[in-house]
Amino acid sequence: MATYRKWSQEDLQIEASKYTSKYAFRKGSPAAYSAARRRQLLSSICTHMPLLVVPWTKDTARIEASKYLTRDELHKKASGAYEYINRVDMLDELFPHPWASLKKYTNLELAEEALRYSFRVDFKNNSPKHYMAARGYGVLNTICEHMQYKGRGFKKNLPAILYYFKIENVWKIGITNRPFTSRYNTVDRSKMTGITIQYYTHGYTAFDIEQEVIKRNCSFKATGVPPFTDGTLLTECFTKDIRILK
Question: Distances in Å between the alpha carbon of 178 and those of 48, 181, 182, 199, 240?
């Protein structure tokens, strides 16, 4: 018969302190995460986790990566740094051990394989070795640029961005699986200032951050006439700059 650990609030706080994002907490300690969520303690034990991430630089990424021994450890405990390091092709530099279990494909072979698919999920399911190799080499996003996403709406399991900006007298946070330039038209983008964009391999992290920011700042929710020309409403818009980190 299975036994279940009874987590005290102190135990949950200690467990949560090991992670820098709710996504990493959920992936690394699912039992503790579920217990905290069930007891409505997530907000109180995750206050040390940043709500918006300051854009990484190569220097700050190297400093953060030096704290960890493996790629998996970096991914689990500092997902934002991992996303940046992977995006700028620094993984092999900072963690030089080879992808021994993968066949050595050339970038051309990977690109040709990717062209067989219109959707990333089909590429992943039907050519997993090519997909994982492309991800390991840091070229996955490049060779999948022609692909579309199945269905409509935000997909938590797909790559995503978390964005933040000011337009006229309101500040807006949002998430999307699309490029930022596809999310808003040229007219609206010309009125935006202070645009901050953070990239994530999985939308779960972006979603968690967005929801926590909205929850903590609901008293500053904007009302009135939206400043957008494309029909965007004032959802996730605020009357003050609600970023925790500048």
Answer: 29, 8, 6, 11, 26
- Give me the phi and psi of 156, to 5 degrees please: -70, -25
Q: What's the pLDDT score for residue 168? A: 93
Where helices occur in 70-228 by DSSP H, the ranges are: 71-77, 79-87, 91-94, 107-114, 120-126, 128-137, 140-143, 180-183, 186-190, 203-216
Residues 6+ apart with CB under 8 A from 26: 33, 204
Contact present, 113 and 130 (Cβ < 8 Å): yes
- pLDDT tens digits along 82-100: 888 888 888 878 876 544 4
Quote the tokens at residue 65.
């990566």
* Calpha distance 216→3 (Å, rounded): 36
Distance of alpha carbon 220 from alpha carbon 238, whole angstroms: 5
Q: Give the whole-angstrom CA distance, residue 87 versus residue 199.
A: 9
Confidence grade of residue 245 (pLDDT, cut at 50, 70, 90): very low
Measured in Å, how far apart are the chain's first and last C-alpha atoms?
50
Domain positions in the chain: 8-49, 98-143, 160-238
Average pLDDT of the segment spanning 32-41? 89
pLDDT at 20: 78
Residues with Cβ < 8 Å from 6, sequence gap 6 or more?
none
Q: What is each CA distance from 244 to 22, 118, 164, 209, in whole angstroms?
A: 16, 39, 12, 11
What proportion of the chain, given as a percentage, has pLDDT over 70? 90
| Predicted TM-score (pTM) above 0.90 | no
Q: Are 143 and 134 in contact (CB under 8 A)?
A: yes
